Amino acid sequence: MKRIFAAVLLCASIPSFAFAHHGVASLGIAGLQGPGAPIETSTSATLPRGGFLLYGKLDYAQFEKFNPEVDDESDYNAFWMYSLGYGVRSWFSLYAFVPFSTKTVENNSYNTSGFADMSVMGVFGFKYDERFMLVPENESLDDLEDWHFTAYGGFSLPTGNADITDSSGNIDPGMSLGFGQPSYQGGLTATKLFAERLTGVVEASYIAFTENEYADGNELKFGSESRLNGALVGRLFIDEPTKFRLDACLETGLLRLDRDELNGEGERATGGDMLYVTPGIRIFLKGASVAAGVKFPVWTDLNEEDEQQGAEGKEKYCALVSFSILL
After folding, report:
1. Is the pTM of this model over 0.85?
2. Please, what's the b/e burial string for 128-149 (b: 16 or more CB within 10 A of its CB; e: otherwise)?
């Protein structure tokens, strides 16, 4: 039964536009039966032993503008994530990620595009069935109704260019393709099939960044990120002959960003709290999965909020599309 579902790891820590916009790890599963998978929130799934997962995702963020004229305000960011996963054991999976990011401003005076920091992550899976245990090699459909959990952790490698300059030779770390130093991420998930067609998911995660000295002599440490996500996924339609399944999901995500630290001091107009809501759908076809959704900020409490154009919490919307296939 283990082969009836595939794990999908949506994105790891990737750099974005000024004042930080970093992805998170997310797991999903694919199968005609069993739990459903959100678009961003991580579910408690591991890859089958010896199984490979190919994955791609696009995260497109369109920002609100403060000024009506065309100037150097943030316009949009597009993040592609390419990933390869491998099931080392039924209870342990490894993933490698290669992100590609594009960041633009309205007047195109400081656009950047290229491969960002690579990252790796390990995922441990366990479940509760009268006692806690590691995820076994094979699970029946009844077993999939048990509480499932994961603990994951990983780090990024400073492979992206952290010192990209504008036409005047200035460096904006938010426009860089890398952090210049490793970043570290960890999290916990819990997943439960509460009814035949309804899955609940909860995830808590944390990302910490390392201070980097840039080519202009400035030292910057991006603020750490704390996230609490929740999701409900409903199975809408199944067609057994074609192995087709359609799910709808609704997610919420609470994000707290600490202030960035520039040369040892808290940087103005960075950090704050925000709440996102993401409605979306996921389609399963045999061993493949396609998901799409739109994420909106519905509440924000940002530091110096009227100065944070182009920051997380200031998006008009984020369009999310992902694809995965289990080999």
Report:
1. yes
2. eeeeeeebeeebeeebbbbebb
